[in-house]
Amino acid sequence: ILFGTSFFYIIFTIVLYSLGMTKNYKDMSLWSAALSSSSNIKYVSIACIVLFAFGFFLLGFGIIFLLWKKKNSGFLVYITYQLLVTLTIFFLHIGFHMLSVGAIVLVILNGILMTLALLLLLHNRIDDSALEIEEKEQSPKQILFYKRIVFLFETLTLIVLFTIFFIPLFTQHLSPTDVSYVLINALSTNTAPIYVSIIFIVLFLAFFICLLYYANTISYYFKFKLTEKYVKRAKRCIYSNAAICLVYFILGFAMTFYNNIKNVSASTISYIPFIISICLICIYSIFQGKLGLGFEEKEKVESQKKFRLEPLFFILVLTGITYLSLFFNLLEIKIRNNSYDFLNDSVSLSGYQLLTTYQDLGAGYQGLAFALFAMLFISGMALIVCVVSFFAKYKDYYRLIKFSAYANVIFMMLLGLFGYYFQIAQKINEEYLLRLLERFNMSLPEGYTYKISSQGIYIFAVSFAVFIVMVFRGLLNLKMEMPFLEVKSSSESGGSSESNSAFQSFNRDGTIKNFDACPAFKELDEKQEEYAQALSHRKEASFENLSLPQLVRFIVDYARESRLHLSYSLEDIATFLAGLGASRLTILQGMSGTGKTSLPKIFMEAISGNCEIIEVESSWRDKNELLGYYNEFSKSFTPKKFTQALYKAKLNAEVPTLIVLDEMNLSRIEYYFSDFLSLMEHEEDKRAIKLLNIKLSYFEDGVEKEYAGLTEGHTIKMPSNVWFIGTANRDESTFEISDKVYDRAQTMNFTKRAPKVVPTGSPLAPKYVSYEALAELFVSAKTNLKFDAEKNSTIQKVEALLIPYNISFGNRILNQMEDFVKIYCACFTDPKQAFKNAIEKILLSKVVSKLEFKIVENKEALAKEFDKLGLKNCSAFIRKLNED
């Protein structure tokens, strides 16, 4: 497709040079027009030729970049440029009508092909692992059905949006025929006003962007893992399409209004696409609410369900009253003759008459008509949004109800004041009239009186009465009274949602009755009994006669017989265990799909421990992204998923816990994890992280209570039963891991795909290993095996070999080496046989791997020195070093 579009572009350019202009310019080609004497077409043609020439340059650059670097970034730039050129020529034609029919067809074909090529490139750049659906109650069939519903409405709204180019913006009723201004006519005629061409260009750009966005969402439609992302993007597309239809309607009304006040009769049907879009959104919202597949877990309170429909009913009543104002007299003038008792004459002006006859009235009434239309439009839109929110179960439903109620009452108050103003102004105007007549020695003729009245005040009274009923029914503060409606649970949201904010209530004397500064912590505190029961259940299946060799063998067998049939060797598990015993931070790095994340998960599953997965985001820039935020306004703290995992581990001190930072190097680790890197230097009983500078607590029935997992209300002491595991891919989308991180961590490299395993039996049952038992195994291994890293000859020789490359290590790494080797050897029944392998593993991960960032002039000579030491893996690593 890329090379096909390139070939078409070359043909397109050559043919367009020859077709070029219309008969308005004597059938000249672009090249001939550029050499002509007509300044307008000359400069336009020269601009087109320059654009084409630069396109050839970008095309060549894209081809070279693709062949040289094997990347399509150059083509992405070239195709994007071609789309912009196509749109530019398109709009130049609208202004100058310079192209023939054949040339217009070529321009459109070029735009279509370039759009297809751009979508192909964007499709290939989508990361399949961007978002995954895990542990959802919906089956794949339900999700597929919901996706089809979303796709259907997304497509329908885009089709409706496309109709704006064929439905007249407005129509002028002139004699002898009507003149309709259709946007698509801007391509074929130059008789349309300039503002119609401008509107066409702006709306066409908006439609083109929506079309690109729509096509981009299709790429997500076919990927099950990206269902949530597809739904979010499709909803944006649906609402964007409707918003552009709304803009088109407003433009049509504005043009009609302007023509009417200029005494040119006009009308519009530009509202048709908008009405259809709104109907589609309402139907879509019903599907979304009824299917319950909005990918948000909602807590609903059965006793409060009756409040959901009642406020919507009152909004329907208030909106109905607002629209009934069209049929009431906003102004009525009654004229009576003093000689008779009966009514002689009267003049009345209703809202409907004002909207239909404003063009014949003065400027003041025309402004009033526009204001009345705006009121009706806002009121109607507010009702539609409330209805959509009700069916879609939108979390801000009650806020929208409140806005709609206040808007309708304020509008009716303004109408009432309008009529009342005329009644007051009657006396003012009469007095002014008498004074003016007296100055000219004239008097007011006798024999008649007049009276001004308005029914607007009655409409306001009815509307206000309904509003008062809503107030007494408590329908305008439902959000305050029911903070638990539409709230995502903290365990699901990872503490990132503002819906977890605290709520509070007060006693009559003003003292606090209920207040929760961190609902997520309180929720975990309330689960302590549940945690205790789970611990008792775990202890029923404890690991008997526990030893490191038995533990390693059991985990290997458990992984093989598990539902995933994972393949890990005894050396892999021993390396992982030794890393846990030597450091609180372990980094699992290597290519994707080699089992980095699966290792800590299956390890904890086998020993009935806890494994918490934290997805690192590329936007993380400080520790608050990891820990959470304090809201000064609500006086509440919103912990992130990481903080909740620490807090949970604090409440489960006997259970080993691994907190996995998945894709750890998507952001620079020092940005968000630096505090924890520093904590690892402290003694174990002095490791604590301060969350914020104020004390957190909660009130129940006026009694202040502390959170069980916090010290002094703001600090979490680092639980001893926690290890941090970081997984890291090494590609262009990630950051390099610095020496500061590597020096404090144990590293495992996953450089190849694990061999396929065949299960030999049924799945094994987990065996519980407590944190205390695991810690005793590590202490015992460090005590029983004698090893001094500083005096080891192999380590000394390696250090001497690396001195020319300015690579050395301090006491921290030396201590980690000793701990790692001791625990690794203790994982095997014959520690002496594993000793040499342990030395090489720790040297390769902690010391020799630093050669990757050094310039090694003679790799082969250095590799042979390592061969002499028997360090075959280290020498193989050196031989594979990239010269760059």
Characterize the structure shown.
The protein is α+β, with helices and mostly antiparallel strands. It is built from 31 helices and 19 strands. It has a 5-stranded parallel β-sheet, with helices on both faces. A 4-stranded antiparallel β-sheet has the order 7-8-15-16, with no helix packed on it. Strand 7 and strand 8 form a beta hairpin. Helix 7 runs antiparallel to helix 8 and helix 28 (811-826) packs antiparallel against helix 29. The longest helix has 43 residues, at 397-439. The protein starts with a helix and ends in a 5-residue tail after the last helix.
List keywords for this structure.
884 residues; alpha+beta; four-stranded antiparallel sheet; 31 helices; globular
Q: Please count the helical segments.
A: 31
How far is the N terminus from the C terminus?
34 Å
Find the count of extended strands (DSSP E, 2+ residues): 19
Low-confidence stretches: 19-26, 127-139, 293-307, 340-344, 479-504
CA radius of gyration is 38 Å
Topology:
Blueprint: H1 2-19, H2 30-34, H3 39-69, H4 73-96, H5 101-124, H6 140-162, E1 170-173, E2 178-181, H7 194-221, H8 227-261, E3 266-267, H9 271-291, H10 306-324, E4 329-337, E5 343-350, H11 351-357, H12 363-392, H13 397-439, E6 448-453, H14 456-472, H15 478-481, H16 490-493, E7 504-506, E8 512-516, H17 519-525, H18 528-539, H19 548-561, H20 570-582, E9 585-590, H21 598-606, E10 610-615, H22 624-627, E11 628-631, E12 636-639, H23 641-651, E13 657-662, H24 669-679, E14 688-690, E15 698-700, E16 703-705, E17 715-717, E18 722-728, H25 739-744, E19 746-750, H26 771-784, H27 793-802, H28 811-826, H29 831-846, H30 859-868, H31 872-879
Parallel strand pairs: 9-18, 9-19, 10-13, 13-18
Antiparallel strand pairs: 1-2, 1-3, 4-5, 4-6, 7-8, 8-15, 11-12, 14-17, 15-16
Helix pairs in contact: 1-5, 3-4, 4-5, 4-7, 5-7, 6-7, 6-8, 6-9, 7-8, 8-9, 9-12, 10-12, 10-13, 10-14, 12-13, 13-14, 17-23, 19-20, 20-28, 26-28, 28-29, 30-31
